[in-house]
Known about the structure:
CATH class of the largest domain in chain A: Alpha Beta
Enzyme class (chain A): oxidoreductase
Oligomer: heterodimer
Number of strands of chain B: 8
Largest interface: A-B, 55 and 54 residues
GO molecular function (chain A): branched-chain 2-oxo acid dehydrogenase activity
Organism (chain A): Halomonas citrativorans
EC number (chain A): 1.2.4.4
Number of domains of chain A: 2
Number of domains of chain B: 2
Pfam families (chain A): Transket_pyr, Transketolase_C
Helix content of chain B: 40-55%
Amino acid sequence: MPTMNMLQAINNALDIAMAEDEKVICFGEDVGIFGGVFRATSHLQEKYGKARCFNTPLVEQGIIGFANGLAAQGSVPVAEIQFADYIFPAFDQIVNETAKYRYRSGDLFNVGGLTIRTPYGGGISGGLYHSQSPEAYFTHTPGIKVVVPRNPYQAKGLLLASIRDPDPVLFLEPKRLYRASVGEVPEEDYQLQIGEADIIKEGSDITLVGWGAQMEVIEKAVELAEAQGIACEVIDLRSLLPWDADTVAESVLKTGRLVVSHEAPLTGGFAGEIAATIQERCFLYLESPIKRVTGLDTPFPLVLEKEYFPDHLKIFEAIRESVNF
Amino acid sequence: MMIRYVHQPTFLTGDELSISTFSLLDPEGELYSGAEAPALEREHARRLYQAMLSTRILDERMMAAQRQGRLSFYMQCVGEEAAVVGATAALDDADMIMAQYREQGALMYRGFSIDEFMNQLFGNELDYGKGRQMPIHYGSRKLHYMTISSPLATQIPQATGYAYGQKLAGDGQCTLTFFGEGAASEGDFHAALNMASVHKVPVIFFCRNNGYAISTPAVEQFAADGIAPRAFGYHMHVIRVDGNDVLAVYEATRQARKLAVEHNHPVLIEAMTYRLAAHSSSDDPSGYRLKSEEETWRLKDPVLRMQKWMLKKGWWSEEEETQQQESLRRDVLETMKRAEKRPPPSLDSLVSDVYADVTPALQRQFDQLKSHIRRYPEAYPQGARSLDLTVKTPTDSKGEA
């Protein structure tokens, strides 16, 4: 099986989707001949022509407005927003248009063909505007799906599933892992089920839940915990909207303890949603309060990035506190 | 981009260029001297005029119904029928229309039935939109009319995208998007025009410059000479047209369509017109404009202007006019009664179409809601109608663990 980094896996998925269906069209800022600032769309213009892979003017609201119309027409647009930090000019098009197209028309029209790809997350010295994790803004929006892969294998399978999904998908790519995460990725076409969590590791003492780049941080914390004899169950949600509450609830019914971790700020973060749901569904089985290990309620810092970050040590401490409650 | 150096500073304001207004029919329904009527067949002209007249009558009746409290909300097209119907008549019936909200004339022209209008206005079980949107948010897949969305200008970049898809599909269709001069202040407008020009998209941007954005007059909306000059900034074809002259609107749009479909040139059309009605049933223009101003525009009534031309051509008669007005008024009233009595959409339509399939989380919420409605059916009469109240309600007060 070939080894790929996450960018190569994403590029490979786009290549497969474009080869298979001429309605698949990739565009965004710098995605044309340059192949995107991270090179996720490398060689696609050469292979499929300027009509199907092209640069757009620098206007995020225009990119998503255009993509909505194109999807409504029956094409399968894969629009790139260069950084998730810059998605907000397109917020209206995503929240009021993309998400409501099918509902408001009574299913006469839909933009289910649309996939919005965007790199998110910190740990790359990106400061306020190249580090944000805006998932919670979008998980509050019925009508779109929000998908986050953790490694190259997941990225390829989930991106192919997103492109072919009958609903519009916001595909958040952990940019810290673009080149850092390398793994075996099948050459051929495959899809991973959107809405199904992945139990990475089974364990009986405590459940850890995360997604995207945070999974490797959680796994590092788990190594520390396991060394102290704490058996951890690790779950990658993979999809935040919809999210697989059943798998998490089942795990917590077994372990009685839950730690959720994400990079985004604490207040209003998606961990709050998970905690609320799990306490509803597992109340009598909980052995300790559900813990959230997240970013602070500040903008994403630069020099003090390490201090802000919900790193493995903070997660490890949360595990200990939960187990020793 | 051509760079031509000069050695004295020169500032330009755009006033160097004055944009004229294309007009064929004067307010008396006579062709201006030197003006040539477009090649419009008798039957086509009748279809066009009838759509204008029907739109006027529908608006009159529905506004009255709103005032009687039968309808929650309404928006009239009064004064802008020529702009809307004239543009639509110049398109192929399979071209996509992405409208703002005041363009019911386009649907009327394409054959949306009075029943279809009423079902949407009353949000009953036959409404294509399943009673989810306020009145006047029509949509029709078979008539290639995109469902209306309240946020302003969002449809404009979507029209660019839709038309780009049409261009790739190569089926010779284009998209026309309607919007007001107020909506043209939104960022989406600029994004849409720029992208259309850069990517050579067969789209027609049709601005109804009707003088007002709710209460804000055009002079407080922009400092420039209307919307038309903006096209130069995008290197786009543009024409300004007398929006109350249906022949001029028709001809301008017909030629714009040729530019779009045959040459992939996007076109901006600015139709100069006037919103004779209030912004909506919730608005009262007496607070922001003079009756006398409205009167000067009543003299330029686009429906009367076309009627006069039709009568002179012998393509329409006073008897037909009376007969159509009467039969349509009757039809609207009868259809309205029918639509009002129809049941609301079923409770299931509350959760369908959010996604292609109902998600497990939403299904859970829906099951809980149904249990609740079964306990208090009187409190939720619309939803309770379609719910089988005899089904046992599971007790879940202890949570689910």
